[in-house]
Amino acid sequence: MITELFGAITSGSLFLAALLIFGFAPGALLRLIVLAFPKDDERRAELRAELSAVPRVERPFWVIEQLEVALFDGLWPRLVWAATGRIIDRWHLNSGVEFNRLHPETFWIPSDEEKDALVPGVPVKLMFDMKDGWGERMWVEVVAVKKRNIIGVLRNDPWGIPRLHHGDRIRFKRDHIIDIDWDGASECDPAPQDGELPRGA
């Protein structure tokens, strides 16, 4: 009786373990692995499609192999890109309030009341500066207004700021705002052609 019960428990445990290892685990782990690649990387969809073609007995080993690929071909380049972007090509937002305090007669900024009235869809102008002294003033369309921060989407193509592109999400504070286009008619400059200089450069 005890032997039969132990055998039933053992066989049931083995069945559940096999179901987990060869059934659920490979697919779940692969979903995590593909996150190492950028969202627009075709390998995300390719790996998920390839899993269904791999025999179930081989899937755990195949998925582990893909983990190695994802770490070195997906995650590592993204980590290097992020590190060099923050250290080498770092840009920051300048405070419009500070510039207005230093040059009150020539540097105008919107009032606090105007900044507090911001709603999604309104373009605001911010000052983007690099460590080497290069700076650009660009329009950012507000998409979310929070208590302390505002989130927007860049509506210009930077001329000389690496790793910053039209459509990038920008988090900023009200003090960074130097202009507000309530009519939404602000002109967004196109990306520069080879050899061209930005207007005003």
What does this structure look like?
With 201 residues, this protein is α+β, with helices and mostly antiparallel strands. It has two domains: 2-87; 91-180, SH3 type barrels. The protein is built from five helices and six strands. It has helices spanning 2-33, 43-51, 59-87, 96-102, 112-116; strands spanning 91-93, 123-130, 135-145, 150-154, 169-172, 179-180. Strands 1, 2, 3, 4, 5 and 6 form a six-stranded antiparallel beta sheet that branches. The longest helix has 32 residues, at 2-33. The model is unreliable at 5-10 and 189-201 (pLDDT under 50).
Key structural traits:
201 residues, alpha+beta, SH3 type barrels, 6 strands
Q: From the coordinates shown, what is the CATH architecture of the largest domain?
A: Roll
Largest sheet: 6 strands, antiparallel
Please report the number of helical segments.
Answer: 5
CATH fold category name of the largest domain: SH3 type barrels
Radius of gyration: 27 Å
Low-confidence parts: 5-10, 189-201
Instruction: Give the domain tally.
Output: 2
How many strands appear in the DSSP assignment? 6
SSE map:
Elements: H1 2-33, H2 43-51, H3 59-87, E1 91-93, H4 96-102, H5 112-116, E2 123-130, E3 135-145, E4 150-154, E5 169-172, E6 179-180
Antiparallel strand pairs: 1-2, 2-3, 2-6, 3-4, 4-5
